[in-house]
Amino acid sequence: MTVEPPRTSTPLDVAAIRADFPILGRTIRDGQRLVYLDSGATSQRPRQVLDAERSFLEHSNAAVHRGAHQLAEEATDAYEGARERIARFVGVDADEVVFTKNATEGVNLVAYAMSNAATSGAEAERFRLGPGDEVVVTEMEHHANLVPWQQLCERTGATLRWFGVTDEGRLDLSDVDGVITERTKLVAFTHQSNVLGTVNPTEQIVSRAHQVGALVVLDACQSVPHKPVDFKALGVDFAVFSGHKMLGPSGVGVLYGRRELLAAMPPFISGGSMIELVHMERSTFAAPPQRFEAGVPMTSQAVGLGAAVDYLTAIGMDRIAEHEHQLTEVALRELSAIDGVRIIGPTNTEHRGGTVSFVIDGVHPHDAGQVLDDKGVEVRVGHHCAWPLHRRMGIPATVRASFYLYNELDEVKALVDAVREAQRFFGVA
Amino acid sequence: MTVEPPRTSTPLDVAAIRADFPILGRTIRDGQRLVYLDSGATSQRPRQVLDAERSFLEHSNAAVHRGAHQLAEEATDAYEGARERIARFVGVDADEVVFTKNATEGVNLVAYAMSNAATSGAEAERFRLGPGDEVVVTEMEHHANLVPWQQLCERTGATLRWFGVTDEGRLDLSDVDGVITERTKLVAFTHQSNVLGTVNPTEQIVSRAHQVGALVVLDACQSVPHKPVDFKALGVDFAVFSGHKMLGPSGVGVLYGRRELLAAMPPFISGGSMIELVHMERSTFAAPPQRFEAGVPMTSQAVGLGAAVDYLTAIGMDRIAEHEHQLTEVALRELSAIDGVRIIGPTNTEHRGGTVSFVIDGVHPHDAGQVLDDKGVEVRVGHHCAWPLHRRMGIPATVRASFYLYNELDEVKALVDAVREAQRFFGVA
Amino acid sequence: MQLEQMYQEIILDHYRKPHRHGLREPFDAESFQVNPTCGDEVTLRVRLTGTDTDAVVDDVSYSGQGCSISQASVSVLTDLVVGKPLREALTTEAAFSELMHGRGKIEPDEDVLEDGVAFAGVAKYPMRVKCALLGWMAFKDAVSRVVVEAS
Amino acid sequence: MQLEQMYQEIILDHYRKPHRHGLREPFDAESFQVNPTCGDEVTLRVRLTGTDTDAVVDDVSYSGQGCSISQASVSVLTDLVVGKPLREALTTEAAFSELMHGRGKIEPDEDVLEDGVAFAGVAKYPMRVKCALLGWMAFKDAVSRVVVEAS
Ligand SMILES: Cc1ncc(COP(=O)(O)O)c(C=O)c1O
Ligand SMILES: Cc1ncc(COP(=O)(O)O)c(C=O)c1O
Known about the structure:
CATH superfamily of the largest domain in chain A: Type I PLP-dependent aspartate aminotransferase-like (Major domain)
Bound molecules: pyridoxal-5'-phosphate
Function (chains A, B): Catalyzes the removal of elemental sulfur and selenium atoms from L-cysteine, L-cystine, L-selenocysteine, and L-selenocystine to produce L-alanine.
Number of domains of chain C: 1
CATH class of the largest domain in chain A: Alpha Beta
GO molecular function (chains A, B): cysteine desulfurase activity; lyase activity; pyridoxal phosphate binding
Number of strands of chain C: 3
Oligomer: heterotetramer
Number of helices of chain A: 14
EC number (chains A, B): 2.8.1.7
Largest sheet of chain A: 7 strands, mixed
Protein name (chains A, B): Cysteine desulfurase
Organism (chains A, B): Saccharopolyspora shandongensis
Largest sheet of chain C: 3 strands, antiparallel
Largest interface: A-B, 95 and 96 residues
């Protein structure tokens, strides 16, 4: 295995980065070195993020936006400061960032706001859906960006349509104008597939959607953690991502919404801190983002995510993308070279991120995963919450390796070796 | 000020407890000792909870229920182990405990499941609501247990009714049978008021509700952290509480639901990990509690809440209740003794928890809070997310002191002194 | 003790004896503003004379409930804007808003803000800034309604 | 290496040459079970003869897809229950389920579980326990359907 010299930026000092992640020092099973290749499911946390959260909790913890004492003031500053940095990280303004518990809640927030529009005022008109209206998704969506739209259609009588996937694992956009039509009210699609690694062409989809006046929701769970992303530049109306996939805490996610859309959108979860006036008979609601953050929020988690964004920014998203690109290139090449191993998704690195899924003839992914685990190589096996995509590719499950800034080239080698071992163990090589 | 000797249990070693809470060592403004009397909004966290979460993140962090590798196995064990201990803490079974981001989400979960029942199968029949049906709440509810029901009524055409509050700050139950009737489909009320401290008589309300076949939702946010609570013994159908009010992390709450109800209830937030089968056209859903936990959950936060429950259990909820009872008794007596101070809520400790709200003639609560803060006394001022209750009591806002296991008697004294100082500062005494 | 910095005598005076208090007729527009975190409210009316660049603030009347900061602030507001050209009043509004968002690091211009400079200490308390701005938001909103209606 | 403990030869043999594979007629009830985390599926049919306490498992047929553990387990299941009195089959089911939930700490009874004892190593891997139980859940479910229909 050889690495080409980095093309656009200085290479990462991966050893120094790894030293920031306490968990990477542990072993697996009988003393195997941990080779963590499951960052697509959830990433690990650097000391800096753990420390930021702990320091907040040991010094400034209080309920934010509720009360005037000094702790509340410091906590609110920390929480809103995190919001500002996170917003800047994805090219938007702080008041366009809503904190959710995860990306899944973000998608549901938009989906429920749309069905709630039925019983809201005229300003919510453009969010209303009914029979005859259509919602467009793709066959490669994560369940998080599929099931909420199915449910929205069930609630409203709208129809779900979708773009298919080619054998190569790309979106079939041969009939964009036939799928996104005047009936389309919303288009939801993933920026990068969590199985195939495919990066979808946002421009073509966004411009057609806007041509027919449809809203665009981008699932950015697998892009924001791995490369520079600017939602304004992409022109999407909404986007979601999760903290835990980008070195941040679990329990916090982000919904971005264009200012004027959030302002017109009915609330989803209701309760304290999202209101303007409350009477027994009825209530009115606060301006965004508060309108969409009911209850005591994930305060220390937002602070932790702010620290994660600082960490990523200090390293540089360009360099991280470049690093993963190199690992992916080697992984694709080496895995493809093994007899009986088939990559599911693009086999080159063009418009493709650092997620490599594959199947091994004669070895069920679950069994392969067990052998890999025995070698300390932690990958995910199964349908990765993208069941329809697997069905489309004609397979029940895959083995998925996903890379991040802390992965090293010799971990790719460990993966490849473990795959060969799985073949040996099950007698197929 | 004198303390009576503890009645039923050995007194807490508050000094030892305080040593577990790093934040209690800090100062406020110009070097004032921190007197934290805002645990009703959010509690502080002991080292044990911070350590449990950090240790999880440094050793076993992974996406739970998704993948078969050793980290996923350890993470799932930690997450499900926490669920078991938390369930036991409130007298229910693990599969009746759903993790939410906060109590507010828990209430919304039930409210949305009920409107979703309209487009669900026959098994969801008993959750359906429509015109002519009634939902009953009380005038002392936190917005979290009021606004979601208003919104449910808007979505379904059902009618919201409520129990009033007496001048003494008790529920007016003089006409229980007139308020809860055959039309009532659901009764939602708070176990303990977050403003008045009032503990409501669950038995009378639950038995009338069940007599007419209505479901009962208990808001246990202010009871579970402070005394022994057993949901099975109370006979409620659903209950909610938040981790951050009971020494646990923010970003995690609990919805308890009776097993057979959860089994029949349609999902709320949808996405990964809550499904059974997913096709492009439609999906089926997993059994509870997974059905209600879409997406990567608040994993480390659940683990932290498990540690909080262990901490509270080791000290003993009975002893904690007794300790708060004593602080409350002294606070009520000393504050009532000040000319121009009026307690809002019961003035004795019968059926009453450790939350003491009051107004000071001639000093707006916001201004009083500022003087208290200047003395290091952190209380909450405003309507405490119970605006209708304040309107009912004829006041726009109150000052609220709320106690917890780490508060000492001399902090009550600091509160009382600061209130007198506020009167002096604004020239009303 | 920092309290005196926040609660300047000027503020307490305005709180105890608010200027131009009460709701009066005639008026061109009214705005109701509430601070949802604490429940402070103000209803404020403006009466303008003249139009466009010649417009002058003829009267500002108000009622409400709230803390000393929110009540004193709206009283000071009336001193600063009544009888002034609208353009000048809006400049004053901008200066006051800037002061309040300055976290105590902006030196207020007494020529522009007069009694308003007393609120410089409030700017150090971010949770109270909304109190000080409540009346000013109502003023801005009411003025914008007049302008919208006129156009 | 712990792998061999999990993947006993017996398991791999059943996986490669599953017993009684395929769906057959006649049958009294069918159950479809799926493991939503990994997508493993099994469709299983039971045919009983006799009734109540005399009931005997006449045939179990199945098809499905999944890992070696889930496929081998259902193959072993058929060996253990076909031709046995239903009561005995359900006792075996309970014993197997107990073994799988024992986290590797339960000593299996070879007289009851026969080839099933090979799964003792799987019990140490909690994430794989569901694989081993998939077919058994289908069996239990199918039997309960026969009983419900009969009553
Ligand atoms: C009585 C009561 N109910 C509900 C809530 C809402 O809890 P959370 O904001 O954690 O969802 C609170 C606290 O804010 C409360 O005190
Ligand atoms: C592409 C994609 N979308 C959505 C999600 C859902 O994210 P979460 O589970 O954090 O809500 C994930 C990860 O699980 C993902 O990879």
